[in-house]
């Protein structure tokens, strides 16, 4: 099913999303990869504020390439999400509602998504140029020294993603594998 959502990503918006749904996101999202996530957690341990209000926010795991003249941003394809798994539960516990990346998440992250009524979206790897067309504004807001991995505030219009793990913990990677195995069993009979 196709759905359109606007940020902020509230619990009310998340509850109706199901694993496998195609979603188009419009509004403000933030970018961060593993180095920035480590800094987030270090800041929280010191009692410091994060560089943006994480409540009901979405973090896109991306390190975009530099923009060509006349473009807002370069290619902006998703990073493999498991690299953020050590940090994601802590951020979900303080209000993060959504994450965008690619690939599977570990049990601790899925449990935290369920506990905090969040969602994990998958963006299509290999579609970086297409995805970048949905980004209408981008500005670095923190950790400029990380260069392409600096934290950015982005405005997006109809950013295409798929619900990979919904707020009930349904995981499209597990569901897909199970469906495939059922079909294989039928073929062997």
From TrEMBL:
NCBIfam families: PRK06842.1, ttdB_fumA_fumB. It comes from Clostridium oceanicum. It comes from the Bacteria. Transmembrane segments: none annotated. This is Fe-S-containing hydro-lyase. The keyword Chaperone does not apply. The keyword Lyase applies. InterPro entries: Fe-S_hydro-lyase_TtdB-typ_cat, Fe-S_hydroAse_TtdB_cat_sf. Belongs to the class-I fumarase family. Residues 7-174 form the Fe-S hydro-lyase tartrate dehydratase beta-type catalytic domain. Keywords: Lyase.
